[in-house]
Q: What sequence folds into this?
């Protein structure tokens, strides 16, 4: 056997690499089937009360309602852009609900469902997309970091924050969100190397929604994403991202392990982006309608609803009341958006530095004087 | 002569097409440039016609795009890299500044680096953060790179072809908010050289310099000034590195006044360099200090404030007034 063919043998794909991106594999952790049947998993059990199950449903439904309303507001010209979470509600609510009060979340720009679980006001998130500010919520108080648009940058921040927690002896962890596309970034690889080397209490939560704008996952990875973790030296798990119970169980376990000093975990939540990448995108250019139809059958909200109804945990009145709450939320979001004041122009100068510079103070004065000169001219 | 009316976006698309037809070594690389045709559709239809080995949808990794371009260039290819938005060039910044820019010098000319880095730049489209930046000074400050900024469909069509055939690495800045502006393109013409500024409108009172998205603003200001009996000479800089200031000096020697306009933050921006050179060269002809109109030294603001951040026609006219007031 020549050296060349030997090498070829060594790099032969790992098992499963030939069909790396298909759901329904044995590796996929699931606690609730797409038909809404409760199933058990040998490694991940879930202890939830009926109350908790109902409130998970409520979160999913309200977050979707918020998303639909925001998309409509964008279409009506009230928002510059909107990044929809449609289809990813279970991944986000499941992950968000797994966080303890002192854990810190590091989102991308699509984690509205996680924001919701952290008590961030939807209008604060909307203000960013309306162009009023760069993120109106308090990341320190909410333990939900500002959105990060530059792909992958936040995974390093989450790792550093985790290292801080570790040094301080805090029994907390961080949850870093990223997309499938983000796994290609050098910085994400650096974050995983850091996390592994220092055994930092960070959990990487990757929502594999199958696309990075138009680019399918096959263009980012030859192996299932969760397998990458092994190369960095920590566990990787693939969970059904449309199953809120499984996501909750898997993320809870990973965060508990992190808090317990066992270091990082990589979670791949296998899901699908039902909408466009953002409202500026045209998905018909790169994906087939049949694919969308297939994923509709795995809808995260419908399956929990089926389970709750069938098991008698929730009745028709409950669902009606959640719908009514959704209507109220939508009204509050719409009104709040329309009434949102534009920021004062001077704000752009006010927080550039903790200690204002003379030059910027001068530019601020110049700005004020310049605009005042117009008001004089018009009156 | 064959003249077509095209948008800047379409002109770039046709220019890329022609460059790919002319040279099989031209390879386009970037995120979403294939089926989607890029987020601005600049590469629309090119993958269909040239295949996915020549129009490469890359993984989501800018350092990867530029770093592999270096290797491809060493093998005789001519990579044309698309950066999706200005603010996302920074993951690739290390490759551009430490490798792309320096390899030719370090190899004593043995390793060619004919790479084009296309960047839609500047604000005014109502986007969220990192989608509206003007990073030109970082690149113009780096020896080994050349930087151009187009402002018309004709320059877009010819400029992209000239950049691709040019032997040095070029940061090719496209004024994203002007992608939809239309103009005449003569596809048989002999184009102006790439590294040359151009007087777009003659005038006697003040020389106004601009590039990229601000060229239109400068022309609008000249139009408005004319109504008040003031005559502005508007120069489109076109090349930011190397700078072509001879036509500017000639103009300033006549007008005695100079205003430089750009969107990028004013401090240490291109305007500062130009002001210094014009002052050094034309000191005895100047009736007023060279003035700059630029962005404030702040991060690019949320979109509700961008109108107040971006230099507009009024701010240009205000500077013209100040210049004439000396
Ligand atoms: C460094 C960088 N490059 C490019 C972009 C433009 N961009 C925004 S979102 C996106 C795709 C992200 O895909 P993925 O990580 O899978 O997350 P998803 O949007 O699917 O949630 C791209 C290319 C960016 N924001 N940052």
A:
């Amino acid at each position: 056997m020549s050296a060349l063919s030997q090498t070829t043998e060594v790099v032969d794909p790992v098992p499963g690499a030939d069909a790396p991106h298909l759901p329904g594999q044995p590796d996929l952790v699931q606690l609730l089937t797409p038909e809404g049947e409760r199933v058990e998993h040998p490694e991940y059990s879930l202890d939830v009360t009926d109350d908790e199950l109902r409130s998970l449903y409520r979160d999913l439904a309200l977050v979707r309602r918020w998303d639909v309303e925001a998309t409509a507001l964008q279409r009506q010209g009230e928002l510059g852009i909107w990044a929809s979470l449609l289809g990813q509600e279970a991944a986000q609510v499941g992950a968000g609900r797994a966080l303890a009060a002192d854990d810190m979340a590091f989102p991308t720009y699509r984690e509205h469902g996680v924001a919701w679980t952290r008590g961030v006001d939807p209008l604060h998130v909307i203000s960013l997309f309306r162009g009023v500010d760069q993120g109106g919520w308090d990341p320190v108080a909410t333990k939900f970091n500002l959105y990060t648009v530059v792909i992958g940058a936040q995974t390093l921040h989450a790792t550093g924050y985790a290292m801080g927690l570790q040094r301080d002896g805090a029994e907390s962890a961080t949850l870093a969100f990223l997309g499938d596309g983000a796994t290609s970034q050098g910085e994400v690889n650096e974050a995983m190397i850091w996390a592994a080397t220092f055994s930092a209490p960070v959990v990487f939560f990757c929502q594999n929604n199958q696309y990075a704008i138009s680019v399918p996952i096959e263009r980012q990875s030859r192996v299932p994403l969760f397998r990458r973790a092994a190369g960095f030296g920590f566990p990787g798990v693939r969970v059904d991202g449309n199953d809120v119970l499984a996501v909750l169980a898997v993320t809870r376990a990973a965060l508990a392990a992190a808090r317990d000093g066992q270091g990082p975990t990589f979670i791949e939540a296998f899901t699908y982006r039902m909408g466009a990448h953002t409202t500026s995108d045209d998905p018909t250019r790169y994906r087939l309608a049949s694919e969308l139809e297939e994923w509709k059958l795995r809808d995260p909200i419908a399956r929990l609803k089926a389970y709750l109804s069938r098991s008698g945990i929730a009745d028709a009145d409950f669902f009606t009341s959640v719908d009514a709450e959704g209507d109220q939320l939508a009204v509050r979001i719409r009104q709040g958006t329309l009434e949102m004041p534009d920021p004062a122009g001077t704000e752009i100068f006010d927080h550039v530095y903790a200690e204002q510079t003379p030059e910027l103070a001068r530019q601020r004065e110049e700005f004020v004087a310049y605009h005042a000169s117009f008001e004089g001219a018009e009156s | 002569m064959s003249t077509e009316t095209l948008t800047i976006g379409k002109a770039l698309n046709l220019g890329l097409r022609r460059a790919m037809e002319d040279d099989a070594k031209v390879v386009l690389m970037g995120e979403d440039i294939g089926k989607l045709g890029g987020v601005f559709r600049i590469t629309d239809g090119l993958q269909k016609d040239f295949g996915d080995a020549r129009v490469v949808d890359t993984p989501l990794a800018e350092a990867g795009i530029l770093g592999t371009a270096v290797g491809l260039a060493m093998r005789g290819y001519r990579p044309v890299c698309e950066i999706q938005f200005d603010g996302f060039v920074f993951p690739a910044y290390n490759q551009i500044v430490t490798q792309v820019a320096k390899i030719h010098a370090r190899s004593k000319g043995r390793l060619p680096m004919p790479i084009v880095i296309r960047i839609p730049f500047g604000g005014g489209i109502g986007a969220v953060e990192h989608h509206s930046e003007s990073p030109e000074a970082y690149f113009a400050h780096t020896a080994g790179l050349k930087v151009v900024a187009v402002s018309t469909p004709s320059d877009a069509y010819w400029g992209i072809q000239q950049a691709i055939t040019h032997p040095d690495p070029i940061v090719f800045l496209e004024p994203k908010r002007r992608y939809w502006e239309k103009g005449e393109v003569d596809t048989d013409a002999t184009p102006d050289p790439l590294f040359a500024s151009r007087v777009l409108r003659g005038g006697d009172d003040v020389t106004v310099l601009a590039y990229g998205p601000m060229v239109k603003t400068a022309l609008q200001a000249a139009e408005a000034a004319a109504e008040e009996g003031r005559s502005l000479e508007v120069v489109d800089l076109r090349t930011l590195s190397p700078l072509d200031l001879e036509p500017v000096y000639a103009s300033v020697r006549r007008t005695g006044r100079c205003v430089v306009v750009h969107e990028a933050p004013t401090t240490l921006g291109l305007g500062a360099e130009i002001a210094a050179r014009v002052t050094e060269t034309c000191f005895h002809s100047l009736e007023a200090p060279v003035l700059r109109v630029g962005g404030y030294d702040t991060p690019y603001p949320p979109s509700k404030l961008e109108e107040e951040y971006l230099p507009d026609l009024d701010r240009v006219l205000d500077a013209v007034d100040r210049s004439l007031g000396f």
